[in-house]
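U., I forgot to send this yesterday:
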Amino acid sequence: MSQAAPLRVGLIQTRTPATHAAALDHVAPLVREAIAGGAQFVLTPECTNVVQKDRSLLLPALKMLEEDPVVSGLREIAAQTGTWIDIGSALVRREAGEKAANRQVVIDPTGAIVATYDKLHMFDVDLPTGETARESSAYEPGEAAVVVDTPWAKLGLTICYDMRFPALHRALALAGATVLTVPAAFTRPTGEAHWEILLRSRAIETGSFVLAAAQGGFHEDGRGTWGRSIIVGPWGEIIATLDHDEPGVLLADLNLSAADKARMAIPALKNARAFTGP
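Result:
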């Protein structure tokens, strides 16, 4: 779906602290700033509710989704202001099992949770810097792709490392999504090398808008994230970006009919063919 009037979106760039209470104090004013700037849809980054790389401290502190104070606080803001808020991800306890979930949460203007998505792809890597990541040791991956209906467009939900898997974004676009959310807490070395080019590629391949709200800077737990939140149009053009890693708000007006125009000009979604081999 699309409409003639542009959709004003607000992306929130954070440097999320290591406790839930501090995280809510950090993100809530930025969300309110975006809404005051006219944002009808607000997207926050991955790990909006807590950033703590010491899993012996993180995992015992996690809450069930319905009990998480950051999720509850942002639901209240959505209801108070009549705004769609997409929590890029909250780290929460799962309903079963010992591992957590890295879960995107879409909230409507009544404060109701209308959709959730658990990150599909786990970032398990040894970086040249000596830094290692083993998301699968703490988080259970999701099993399903998710598309969400909004008054403006269908949203396709992804999180961070998912951006390296084009098949997921293609599946979302084929299911009708014209706006792809890619909240992230990207590492600094890979962010400098790959962040922008990957996001622009996903936009071009699918003829979709890409909204990438990011964590940025050096967190109190010692982690470094890239920042540079960005909004990409369906032709691959950069509509708006933050050129730094400081907390802030990125606003832009989206002409959603541009997705249809891009897909008509380059009908890659329709032209793909099954093949055998190699």
